[in-house]
Amino acid sequence: MRARGSGHDPPHIDNLMKFENLKTLAKQGLSLLRWTMDEWKAVEETRLGGARFSLVFPHEIARSARPRSLVLIAINAEGETALKVGLVRSIQATATFDSRVVFDLAVCRT
């Protein structure tokens, strides 16, 4: 089957990602953080420049993430969204009702 008008065969899903990898990703989970550019800049200005940071959430929200799972950070600025990818490094109770979640951001150098 050809993509309409392209003259080329469309890529098959097996060429993009093996089914076993998709199952592993679904099992590990994916977290999403939505930030404004001001919130991202505040994290970027920390000692580690945003490469590693932690946030505090109520237990029930923090526990919805899993250690060693992916986190996608959507940074909204003036109607456009930038995406960053990282890992949930750890989740640790810090108080009666709160947990600290540590994130490691994937750093891409160009």
List the helices and strands and how they pair.
Layout: H1 13-16, H2 19-28, E1 30-36, H3 37-44, E2 52-58, H4 59-62, E3 70-77, E4 80-93, E5 98-105
Parallel strand pairs: 1-3
Antiparallel strand pairs: 2-5, 3-4, 4-5
CATH superfamily: Hypothetical protein
Query: How many angstroms does the end-to-end distance come to?
Result: 37 Å
| Broad structural category | alpha+beta
Strand content: 35-45%
- Strand order within the widest beta sheet: 1-3-4-5-2
Low-confidence blocks of residues: 1-16
The helix count comes to 4
The fold-level CATH name is: Archaeosine Trna-guanine Transglycosylase, Chain: A, domain 4
- How many E strands? 5
Count of discrete structural domains: 1
Q: What is the average of the pLDDT values?
A: 81
Output the CATH class name. Mainly Beta
* Subunit organisation of the chains: single chain
The largest sheet is:
5 strands, mixed
Provide a descriptive summary of the structure in words.
By secondary structure, the chain is an alpha+beta fold. It has one domain (29-105): Hypothetical protein (Archaeosine Trna-guanine Transglycosylase, Chain: A, domain 4, Roll). The protein contains 4 helices and 5 strands. The protein has helices at residues 13-16, 19-28, 37-44, 59-62, and strands at 30-36, 52-58, 70-77, 80-93, 98-105. A 5-stranded mixed β-sheet has the order 1-3-4-5-2. A hairpin with a 4-residue loop joins strand 4 (80-93) and strand 5. The longest helix is centred in the first third of the chain and has 10 residues, at 19-28. It starts with 12 loop residues before the first helix and ends in a 5-residue tail after the last strand. The model is unreliable at 1-16 (pLDDT under 50).
